[in-house]
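Hello Y.,

Per our agreement to keep a running log of every chain we model this quarter, I'm adding this entry. I've kept the format consistent with earlier entries: sequence first, then predicted structure.
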Amino acid sequence: MRAASMRIFRLILPLFLILFAACQPSGEKPAADTREVVDMAGRRMRVPVTIERAYATRPGSVTLYAVAPDLMVNRSLWMTDGAERFMSSAYLKLPFSDGSSEEIVRLHPDVIISYFSINPQSINQADRLSQRTGVPVFMVDMEMQRYPEAFAAMGELLGRQEQAARMGAYLEKRLLPVFAKAAQIPASQRKRVYYAEGNRGLNTDPSGSFHSQIIDLVGATNVAQVSLFSGKGMSAVSMEQVLQWNPDIVIVWTGMGASMTTFRAITGDPLWQRVPAVREGRIHQIPFLPFGWFDRPPGTNRILGALWLAQLLYPDLYHIDLEAAAREYFSVFFHRDLTDAELREVLHPLALPGVDRREVANKLSGHDEASR
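Predicted structure for the entry above:
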């Protein structure tokens, strides 16, 4: 009788195992293959023990490229002319995807990196995206003051602690001292800056916007006293307002890259010559290779933008060797060493091949630029 019972057990065991497996949730990895992580919003989730594919929502591509370019499954940002040569061939071959659920599912990522401001609205959006795709969404705060935490969090999530530590060391050496000194500049000694955007320079972003955050962080005063537009920004202003604000320095957004549409428009417009800073040559084109150094996108490219503006405004305070800082930045964050010619190009946009400064100063351009 016992032998018969054993034979019956052996016959039904395979069937039992098949039925048990069929009852498991489809698409989910066994608990042994996952780990719990906590993102910068305090949200808990389970991710694979080893992440092999990571998706970045706009504008997180630049930061993810710095931490783990080989794990990226998508691009989410377009680049200005000439920027492609600063990126790896593997990155340029990635499909462009701007965050639709269907595209994300087709790319089969292990995790989605949501890189933006953290607030109730963005948390809700992250939760909904995870529900629609079935993929955990790891939120990373893009605020520059939280870069040390952000890099460490991404390094831990993606198993790239060593690279995250290199990025953190750069911050400690280059960027955080700027923030510390900026906080000590008396209000009466702060340079007054106008950030010119749009195809005629009559759009801007006031203090409090992440688009103009660098101005505040390096110890300057943003002269724009306008309503803050969330999202793409670019509040409209008038020439009369700019004249009234009378900035010490005008800095110009990256726009369409080497075409420098906005810079051409401002320096070639007689009305802008009424602004003392423009008339006296205190107007500067923000560098833009491979991405704008100031805000679009608000990725690690802003690190160089902060160093550039700090040295431009307060050379006697910061004493920043921009050439050395740029070389080191590209090595750490873009995984490549700049040639001497490339270094000149990224630091001096008005000296780019084919750009005639006399033409830039006297020719209006009709390009219509869109915020990124």
